[in-house]
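Same chain as my last thread, 166 residues:
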Amino acid sequence: MEYYTYWTVNDAPSNSTQPHSIFLWIFIISLITFLLVWKFKIEDDDKKFYLYASGLFALLAVPGYIYMKFVGGNPNEERLDKYLSDKKIKNITGQISNFRQAQSGRQTYEEFYVDSIKFNYLHNTLYEFANFGGDHSKVLHDGLNIRINYIEGYKGNEIQKFEIAK
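reply #2:
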């Protein structure tokens, strides 16, 4: 059976920052600082220091950006593949059973079983920042064929990769 990737830990917002974008932001901020100091600061020794410092940051950020964007590649994909092939990551294939949405206090969550293994996750933006979470009730249902890579955590099984049969 063929599967497509519905979600991976790399899709979490905590992993979506690209390394080259950091250098781009450093360049933009230092360039704006340079221009503001050049235009509005009164002539004195501090002005020279600020111009040299912001200019140095801008000049160093350009080769960093070029290297990370065009030479370095995207280490997140390789890191994810290496991570998912680790021995700590377990894999299960099967059908979803006992899928349900529930509420504990004011916190909504969803849970389901694949074979005898229970998975649950929260409808919480902070939880979704680094984990599989949110409302997936329109996609997930009983009888859906899935494959999950997960870690046995102390608070339950943490989904690392979620694949659905085509």
